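Figure-free illustration: sequence to structure, shown twice.
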Amino acid sequence: MREVEKLIFVYELTNLIKSKNIIFFPIMYTGLFLGAIGIFGAHGPFSFWFPLIYFFAAFGISGGLSRQITVSASAIYYLSSYSKTKPYVLISIYLLVYIILVLFIFVADFALVSALYLVTSHSVVIGSALLLLLSAFLTSLFVNSLGMSIGLATARFNSSNIINALPFIPLILYMISLLLPANLQQYNPLTATFVMMGSSLTTEIIPTNKILLLALITMVTALTLMAINILLTRKLGDVNLYDLFK
């Protein structure tokens, strides 16, 4: 990375690490509160509850990325226009920062919910650690690519109402995607990563060819979103920051 790119990376990552909301909501709320509901309320298996908790946290982070990209549109425009920083490098930096964050949430929530299950004498099974890590990474890659696309697509509207609604849009899109017919669900990248993670936490691992199909669908979708993000970044124009908060 060039000096300006390193500065952006460190600045964004440091701000996220210092944010109390990052610790409280994704870890304490989704991990502790929803994990307790899964154990004492619904009595759901770990292979269902943990992927569900992780998805809630990942979508929360993705929505925050959407808002951050929209608010930072002016800075992204100036950096890509005047600092010789390529648009794809800028969006890759943002994506990398938020992938690191979501994977940190994954590790923290997994440790917390596993501890809750073990303390209450519930079983925690890891059928495939490699599949678990792969599904966690692909989930992070996809949801953050999606969040970035939403942020870039709405940046030109300069509306505070839209900005305030951005954190909820990725989760809404996921809920809508669940309405797809059953024969199309296997091609839904969000369903794909959920199935992969759930399977990794049982002794009944899905066939290798299906794992490859699900991983390929998610990866291709994420790469397509990244290509769209590059195009949207190049379409950014000058933004009056005061207009964002009228």
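We now fold a second protein in the same way, so the two outputs can be compared directly.
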Amino acid sequence: MSDAKPDNFAKALNIAWWTLNGLSLMGTFTGLVTITLSLVDQPLFARLGETPSWAAAVALAFAAALVIQIFVGGFWSVAASADRPVMARLLCLPSAAVASLVSGIFAAAFWSFTLGLTDGLEDIENDRRFLGILKPIDAFGERMNDVLLTMDALSELMRDKQAEEVRGVSCDGPPSGPGEGPRWRMRVRLTDEAASQAQTARALYDDAYDAIQLPKSVDDAAMAAALNKARQVARDTRISSMQRWIERTANDFRSDFSDPDSGTFVCRDAEAVAKLDAAAALLSAGIDLPTLPPRAAEVGFAESVSNSAGQVWGALGRFAGLEVDRDDEALDATLPAFYAAGLVESAIILLTFLRAYLFPGQRMLSSPRTMRIPPEDYSMVEEELALWNRLARDGSGVMWFHVPENPQDPSLRDRAYQIAYRRRMTPLSVGGPIDISQVAPHTAQALSNAADGASLFTIYRVPKRAATWRREAAAALEQIVARTVSKEQPAT
């Protein structure tokens, strides 16, 4: 075929190959210009003057882009040539892949502007800034929930101490005679006051919960309103009143109490003082609420290049089974740009092999890869997947991971929290653990059984990358088990 092929076909093939390399060079050059122009402010460039500095930066970017594109065309040509030494082809193959990857990253930034996709990136950047508000707001909600739980526990302790005083043993030291004496009257009063303070704490938590209901997307007015509500709760006079009652009651336990009929008396109660001190520390800790973040400026080439690089490396890392971050929304918003860059690079590779095929002995190469789990991590991955199967549930197209807060085995809670943190799951903003029977009664018993009898759970939303890791890790383990069983079977 090599002798009979039409010259026009060979020319058209070369023209197409060079045209695609030109497009790839344009994208790489455009992205590198953005990066190298930042060098203009460096002292070495500043000495040249504004115009020469700009020209030098552009020339440097063009040289780097040209070198990258030469590597793309040259390495792939060597890898595709059957008449080249096998070792040279094997060395050039990964080098060509890296050069195409680098070129594609910058080209994706170029195609983002060419296809008008920067508005989507701007929205995503605003959403990222919005996420910076969520953490302190959630922390504020958790703080108020802790206040509620602490005051409830204090109220319960006071009720228990009142019951003990029936026998005259609610204070440390020698017991008093049973009956309605000064210590009994003191206990009745503190029980009523603690119950009232617990009701105040619940009202504060309800107000805080209403305040932290932020909008689902960036809405300046709604976000500002939510933050103002939260600040009002943080400065509420009910908090200072609660602090004064706690301080006064703790001081009474440390010194003495006054009774209208019996005068002053002493009641040391280390347990009550410890609870009061814990509540005082919780209420006195500062509440750091965020400010409204500024709107993102118009996305430029630098942001587009950064996004392209992050998403490409994230996709490759996930494909290789590595722990990497990847913003699925940012990837989805710029998929057309990645498709365009990928099509150009793929067409270059395809035409390179097609040109080599016009010479005898050329064969296409492929090197599929699958997720790899190191042998030393088999048991760890198996244990994590087993816990996934116990605590993960699907619902309305979203996977939820349930971390038990009160299992019989406390280590179960710690292991589940480690998975949620490691897989970057997002907790529901409900102010703390919830009774699962109130949210999903039809699965409450199954979850409780799976979670060692737990009834309180913190629910996390499983991101796509974590769900995909679970699926791919399970498939990889199945292949490992299948290979192990195959090797262990006796030969027949």
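Summary for the second example: The two ends are 48 Å apart (CA to CA).
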